[in-house]
Structures are given as structure tokens and as C-alpha cells.
Amino acid sequence: xxxxxxxxxxxxxxxxxxxxxxxxxxxxxxxxxxxxxxxxxxxxxxxxxxxxxxxxxxxxxxxxxxxxxxxxxxxxxxxxxxxxxxxxxxxxxxxxxxxxxxxxxxxxxxxxxxxxxxxxxxxxxxxxxxxxxxxxxxxxxxxxxxxxxxxxxxxxxxxxxxxxxxxxxxxxxxxxxxxxxxxxxxxxxxxxxxxxxxxxxxxxxxxxxxxxxxxxxxxxxxxxxxxxxxxxxxxxxxxxxxxxxxxxxxxxxxxxxxxxxxxxxxxxxxxxxxxxxxxxxxxxxxxxxxxxxxxxxxxxxxxxxxxxxxxxxxxxxxxxxxxxxxxxxxxxxxxxxxxxxxxxxxxxxxxxxxxxxxxxxxxxxxxxxxxxxxxxxxxxxxxxxxxxxxxxxxxxxxxxxxxxxxxxxxxxxxxxx
Length: 417
Prior knowledge:
Layout: H1 3-9, E1 15-16, H2 19-28, E2 32-37, H3 46-60, E3 64-69, H4 91-109, E4 115-118, H5 120-123, H6 128-135, H7 141-146, H8 148-151, H9 160-163, H10 165-180, E5 182-188, H11 192-206, E6 213-217, E7 230-231, E8 234-235, H12 245-253, H13 257-267, H14 272-284, H15 290-304, H16 306-321, H17 329-335, E9 341-344, E10 349-350, H18 351-358, H19 365-373, E11 377-379, E12 382-383, E13 390-391, E14 401-406, E15 410-416
Parallel strand pairs: 2-3, 2-5, 3-4, 5-6, 9-15
Antiparallel strand pairs: 1-6, 7-8, 10-13, 11-12, 11-14, 14-15
């Protein structure tokens, strides 16, 4: 299947400048294509995976993806999708973010048949006069004002700095066409105006018959109409320190039945036959959540590796069964990150006093005795029914944690000081 036809089957194409021309080009040769990311933070999130999955599919078919880290444009601020001016970062912040993002992308794309460049390398060399004479002269203000990325901001206002962003992004496309043999730029639906400005610039400078193309991705919405990737806890990050692999796995496994097939098409490399089979299972046995489990496995493996999937599944199984004694200290750190926690000393103590005075897990000694006698309290996976029992915080998990389970599902984590 041609890469364009595959992308269409996966629901990954929103707009193209010349779909048939792009299909013919990709049939004829391996092309260079690019997507940009500005270093506004030190980690990618799952929203970035949307265009990156496209680049990865091209890479797997032998095409050459290029990622542009916006060291230059990131210092300016992209107005796309924003209703107010971005806060400008210091150059030190930008540099730190560049290094962090580059490491994450190498993890996703490897180093073979993949290039990372930084637009600071060429944009920083432009003098103001060069910018105005060589590029500013080629951009019509009326056309720029009509681009949705600018027109949407006219009521609230837009600075000249952000107004010129589309010119800088256009220069990127021209530079990559000349130096990296890039003929296709990919971006989100809100990038259409910026990308087509780049095509216009290339046609003016290199000739109107130059083969360059734009392809944008649909805005990804969940079945309930909300934007994909937003959770009550905020963004889902690719950095395991910000979003643990277990949390990442849980995000995908908890997807709605109405969305899971769409996400299998978009975020995995499973073929049509396997996805159709999983789609059938969503209809016939939704309670088994096989499609969600497969989705979580595939995306977690792509972002964090096979071992992360094993650990996430191990944590999930232990929390469901209550057999938490099987977990390692590192797995506890992941699995209990967002659960109620308290700091306690390493001193041994009577279970009732520990539950009430040290951890405040129980509200009173009477309630603590009742719960212990009734078998409602488990310490590190073991049911404790003796009110005279002693808690030894150093006995398990490298002396770092004590896990308390009250009732069937309520977990608490005591961290040892």
C-alpha cells in the first residue's frame, strides 16, 4: 500500500496541497519530509506523537524524516492555536529543552535514516536587512493577515514578533529543501497556514514547478468531543520522570470503547487484519478490553521499550490482586505515584498506634482495632488481624515503603524517612 493510502486508511490525513502529486512522488522515490517542534518545554507529550507517528510510518517505508528543533523559532513564539502572546524563554532554557527533546526523539526514531536539525543554526545568521530584503519582500501582508493563524488573533492583538513567525517557518522549509532534500512538511491542522506559506516561498524562489507538498493531520477529538491527550492530571508526558511508564500504560488502557479502534489505527503499527479483529472484539466482548490492552502495550513499547510494558503489567496485576509483596521498590514508586501517601519513621511500632498516630490512615483507635480484627487491613499484601502486631517499616521494599490496603481497593503508601 502506498504510504498516502495507508495514512488515509488510518484516518491520519486532514489536508494536502496535491494528494495525487504526493502519491506519485512517494511511489517514484524515497523522499525527505519534516516536522518541527519548538523547545517550549523539556519533554514531548502525547500530543506530539500525533505528527511523529506519521514521520515514523514514512521512515518504516524507507523515507527520510527530519525533525527541526526550533531553537530559533522557539525564541520567538508560535501563535498557532494560541489566543495570547507566549512568554519568551531565556536562551539557557531553550538550550536545555533542545537537548532533552533531541534525546527523546532519538529514542523514538533511532539514528539510522533520521536527522535532527536546529533552525537556530541558519536563522541566527540572518541580519535584519537580509531578512527584510531576501524574504520580507516576498510576503504579502494581506495574504499573511488572511491566514487563520493570524486572523484568529487580530481581535485580541498579535505582536510583530509572532506575526513574523510564519516567515521564519517558511525559511525553514526552503532551507531544508535546499540542504536536506525535504519535499514534504507535516504538521497539525492549525499549521496549514504556516506550511503553505513555506510552499509559496519555495515556488517564488526555486520555481513554480518545484515539487514540494504540505500534509496536515486532523484535530484529534475523543468521542465525548474533548481534545485528545488532556487528562484531569494534566498532560501525559513522554518523559518517564514526569509520567511514569505505568501511568502512561494506564492512560491508554483506560480509553473509551468508542475511541480505541481509531487510536489503534493511529498510534500503533498493527496491520489492517489485526485491527479489524480487535474491532470485532470491542463489539462482541467489550468487557475483556482486549483492544485497549493491545493499544497500551504497543504505544508503551514504542515510547518506553519492552521492559516498561512488563513492569506496567506487573504493577497493574499486583494492584488488582492485592499481591503487592511481589513489587520492587521502583515499581512501587511508579504504581503509587498518585495514591495517598505519608512519611513515617523507620521505628517499629504497634499496628494500631501506627495506623492512627503515625500515618493517620485510621481516624481513631477504636476504628483501627475494628478494621484490623475484621481483616480489612493488609500490610505489604499480608492480612493482619492481630491488634498487638508490630509494624517494621524496614522489613520490605528495601526499607523504603510500607503499603497499606484498607478494604478491597483503598491503598495508602507510607514512605520511610
